Amino acid sequence: MLTKNLAPTKNPATWSNVLGSTPAYGLEYTKFRYPIPPLEPFCLIFFNYPRSDHLLNYSWTAFFYQFLKHPRQVGAVLPCSVDLAQAMRQALEANGPSENAGVVEFGPGTGGITRCLDTHNLTLVEIDQTFCHLLKRRYPNAHVLNLSAQDFLAQQKTPITVVSSIPLLNNPHASAIKQAISEGYRNGMIKKLVTFSYGSKSPFAQCGFTQEERFKHVLRNVPPANVWIYR
Predict the structure, then answer these.
(1) CA angle 119, 123, 129 (to 5 degrees)
(2) Suppose 153 and one of 64, 176, 184, 197 were both cysteines; which one would form an S-S bond, judging by CB atoms 3.0 to 4.6 Å apart?
(3) What is the pLDDT, as a whole number, of residue 45?
(4) What is the domain-level CATH number for residue 133?
(5) CB 206 within 8 A of CB 181
(6) Angle at Cα 1 formed by Cα 11 and Cα 131, nearest 5°?
(7) How many domains does the chain have?
């Protein structure tokens, strides 16, 4: 139930107490007094999700709240598991880094994949402002930009390696994202792309990449995911 001007509750397992009423996360969070869904113990035991620290509590709450608001944009029912994040890092490091290409992550969300990446000289491009505030607190060494992947690529002037955490399944902007990726690769701005999908089909099969590899299948994730490499 929505209420106005509620004081933060003392119960640590409520939305308002976890995110509070700080401007970084928006006053709207204080409207919710429902308990946080008790999913973390299940995910920790069966899917190797990490035990929450102070900021990770924020990320779980922010994730579920944004999923309720924009389910098609968030695109997943749970944040990425540690196993998937490690597989993405391994794919990024496979065959060595792309020469003279900085690393940019598209759609990092709450930082599920980011936690296994080297955040020094890492750029995070996230369209959701709430997630951007969270990313700046969790990864102070990274450069966080609040804009879409399409807008970023339109402005990019130097080659990059892309880690794409953007969910494309049922995403209303999937066609525009694929077109921007295709143009970025054709123009020489994207040297390598690493991504994951929840289906068996290659998510960027029609984007003109000369090399495509399904790098790994990750079972310990909700849902299970495939990791892809494009060059």
Answers:
(1) 110
(2) 184
(3) 43
(4) 3.40.50.150
(5) no
(6) 70
(7) 1
